[in-house]
Amino acid sequence: MNLAAAANENLAHTSNVLIYSAMAVYTLAFLAHITEWVFGSRSAVGRTAAAITSEAGRAASAVTVQVKKAGGGTAVLERPKVVTRSAPGSRADVPDGPGAAGTSEKGDLYGRIAISLTVLSFALHAGGVLTRALSVERAPWGNMYEFSTTFGMCAVGVYLGLLAAKKNVRWLGLPVVLTILLDLGLAVSVLYTESAQLVPALHSYWLWIHVSCAILSGAALYVGAVSTFFYRLRDGYEVRLAAGKTGPGVLEKKFRGLSADAPLSMRMGVRIHMAYDNALTRLPASATLDKFGYRINATVFPLWTFTIIAGAIWAEAAWGRYWGWDPKEVWSFITWVAYASYLHARATAGWKGRKAAYLALAAFACYIFNYYGVNFLFGGKHSYSGV
């Protein structure tokens, strides 16, 4: 065994150790985020009481003024109650939630611990990707294992970048960390491939350009998809809130109103509904989530467009044609059409809100299928790198 090969094997082993270490720290960050949400739920009682007290205070805030009449009598004038309403069909006046930790100081502490652990795990994760690249002296995305690990690193990087930019995205911490754990778990258990050189057709500078753009696009589109998914959940909560089916004290009153012989399943159902709505109250308002997801998708769409164009240019250089209806090419185009339809729907009357959100989620599902489904179910020229 020559020295170069030994060095490569050592770097590949170091990469594996760093990836497993990152997974361990991601797990700790996940538990810290869970604790943050649990302490946040405990502060719900205080927020509910405050909301009820505030409502009572507004009812008692009416001011009466006595005015003397010319004939010696008095007339009582009441200050009119000012009601602000949003435009028909909108709920722009609904405020953002207090965040995962709610008003709990302990919850906020655990949230900060979770972020610190996420930063540490991101550093270990990035080290694992870098040493994998150094072990073979090429881009670290030549197969599905490497693509998955780099994708996860970029997704966490997008989340931490938004935090560094002072964006209100701490609510993203739990779903991001959970998803990355699943992504890395699948990568090391199912998709793992030994560090090795690629076939000659993939030795091109376009590997750095085309695939890196695909990874960055997917990582950002993932964040947009999570925001859109939570928009649907929060939107449903706000609909129930407007209908008086939930809100401060509503479900608590329903639970206390259950008869003593009420089935256990009914009691558990109300409890679960209370916990579910309690979590949703801490998310940003649906309008905020919808706008955030749209901005992410609209910003990344040009990069995804360039990804397809770069792939076509590379295909012409490698295979002598720009487009050959390869399964990966077809589903990349389907994904592009799906996101283009979503962006067009956002600008079309009657398609904003829920309908557009369904399109955004369907578009990201196309991206995921393009990565996993096409690679496992279909052949084609993009199967050079194998799994």
TrEMBL record:
Annotated keywords: Cytochrome c-type biogenesis, Membrane, Transmembrane, Transmembrane helix
**Membrane topology per the record?**
Multi-pass membrane protein
Q: Looking at the record's lineage, which domain of life comes first?
A: Bacteria
* Residue ranges occupied by any Cytochrome c assembly protein domain in the UniProt entry: 141-378
Q: Where in the cell is it found?
A: Membrane
What InterPro entries does the entry give? Cyt_c_assembly, Cyt_c_biogenesis_CcsA, Cyt_c_biogenesis_CcsA/CcmC
Pfam families recorded: Cytochrom_C_asm
- The protein's predominant localisation is membrane
Q: Report the transmembrane regions from the record.
A: 17-39, 113-135, 147-165, 172-193, 205-231, 292-315, 330-349, 356-378
- The protein depicted here goes by the name C-type cytochrome biogenesis protein CcsB
User: Which species does this protein come from?
Assistant: Streptomyces luteireticuli
Q: What is the lineage of its organism?
A: Bacteria, Bacillati, Actinomycetota, Actinomycetes, Kitasatosporales
